[in-house]
């Protein structure tokens, strides 16, 4: 196979991968609602254009005979909605947040057309889910980056959701040690983990446990995670695999502008306190050195249609027994909106 043929196969694989991810309901959200006039009457055949703030990709739909609309399969992120209806002023709502597995419900009120003006509003954050009875809430990128993660493993903060119990994290387990989750008293094997809509369960244990001897699930770097949601009850039939908790993890994607980051997290002997009993016996503190470093970059391949995001993280450790560990955990994702 020459390089031209290999490049063509790679290109087709990228497009197929992007379309597959786009179609996954477990990794997407939706916007739904109704269009009304000043008296509250529904407006039919109103044209809506939903535009992604990050990628500028757009979706177009119209209201039905009841004046209602629904735009499903939207990648998590911020969106704007432009409404155009005959006889009414154009209406634009900005800052509409779409999160994984949730539907943002909107009621947009149009005014009578006057000199071609456009009504511009900023959407408020929806705190109550009106379109679903499922219990759970999204943990976004801000929380993931702000909360302390001793082992840089997102499963350490799954216990923030009500009804979820997580095992005690270990700061010396780098890139592994995924913690099992018990939800509302159910067994750890009753959970379901999905990464970008794809099954991400440990096949050996039928859970999220990550054991090097049994082949656990991969752990992406926190800097590559956009958000995750833990649903604890009343989720719909799309999540029919388990009766416990359902964890939907969504990675970052590229946008219409190139953006990136670089980082290093260091743990060294000079920052560590000696064990109480070792100090009492006059023994020096054991070696515990950890270096976690990497970077990420994302941007457009084809504007408004094809984007890339590449994340790299390397983990190295010298532990108290004198052995050394080194692991390379890359996460490469390519999205086609």
> What is the terminal-to-terminal distance?
30 Å
Average pLDDT across residues? 78
Any idea of the CATH class of the largest domain? Mainly Beta
Beta strands, count: 20
**Overall 3D shape:** elongated
Q: Output the helix-strand order.
A: HEEEEEEEEEHEEEEEEEHEEEE
Plain-language structure description:
By secondary structure, the protein is mainly beta. It folds into three domains: 95 residues, Sandwich (Immunoglobulin-like); 116 residues, Beta Complex (Ferric Hydroxamate Uptake Protein, Chain A, domain 1); 78 residues, no CATH class. The protein has three helices and 20 strands. It has a five-stranded mixed beta sheet with strand order 3-2-5-6-8, with no helix packed on it. A five-stranded mixed beta sheet has the order 9-14-15-12-13.
Write out key terms for the chains shown.
3 domains, five-stranded mixed sheet, Immunoglobulin-like, 3 helices, 337 residues, mainly beta, elongated, Ferric Hydroxamate Uptake Protein, Chain A, domain 1
Topology, pairings included?
Blueprint lengths: L2 H20 L6 E8 L10 E6 L5 E5 L5 E7 L2 E8 L5 E9 L4 E7 L8 E5 L12 E6 H6 L17 E3 L14 E3 L8 E4 L2 E2 L25 E9 L12 E6 L7 E9 L8 H5 L8 E14 L3 E13 L5 E5 L2 E6 L1
């Amino acid at each position: 196979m020459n390089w031209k043929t290999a490049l063509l196969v790679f290109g087709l694989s990228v497009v197929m991968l992007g379309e597959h991810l786009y179609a996954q309901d477990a990794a997407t959200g939706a916007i739904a609602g109704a269009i009304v006039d000043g008296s509250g009457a529904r407006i039919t055949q109103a044209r809506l254009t939903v535009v992604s703030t990050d990628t500028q990709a757009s979706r177009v739909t119209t209201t039905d005979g009841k004046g209602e609309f629904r735009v499903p399969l939207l990648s998590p992120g911020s969106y704007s909605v432009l409404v155009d209806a005959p006889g009414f002023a154009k209406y634009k709502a900005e800052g509409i947040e779409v999160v994984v597995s949730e539907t943002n419900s909107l009621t947009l009120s149009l005014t009578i057309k006057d000199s071609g003006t456009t009504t511009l509003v900023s959407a408020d954050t929806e705190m109550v889910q009106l379109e679903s009875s499922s219990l759970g809430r999204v943990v976004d990128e801000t929380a993931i980056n702000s909360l302390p993660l001793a082992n840089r493993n997102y499963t350490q903060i799954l216990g923030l959701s009500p009804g979820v119990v997580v095992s005690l994290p270990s700061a010396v387990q780098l890139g592994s040690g995924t913690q099992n989750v018990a939800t509302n008293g159910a067994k750890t094997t009753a959970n379901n983990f999905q990464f970008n809509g794809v099954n991400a369960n440990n096949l050996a244990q039928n859970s999220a446990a990550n054991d090097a001897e049994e082949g656990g699930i991969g752990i992406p770097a926190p800097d590559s995670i956009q958000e995750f949601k833990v649903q604890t009850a009343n989720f719909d039939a799309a999540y029919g695999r388990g009766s416990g908790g359902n964890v939907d993890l969504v990675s970052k994607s590229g946008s219409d502008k190139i953006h990136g980051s670089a980082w290093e997290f260091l743990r060294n002997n000079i920052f560590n306190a000696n064990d109480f009993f070792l100090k009492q016996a006059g023994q020096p503190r054991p070696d515990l050195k950890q270096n976690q470093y990497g970077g990420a970059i994302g941007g457009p391949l084809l504007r408004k249609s094809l984007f890339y995001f590449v994340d790299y993280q390397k983990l190295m450790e010298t532990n108290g027994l004198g052995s050394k560990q080194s692991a390379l955990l890359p996460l490469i994702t390519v999205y086609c909106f």
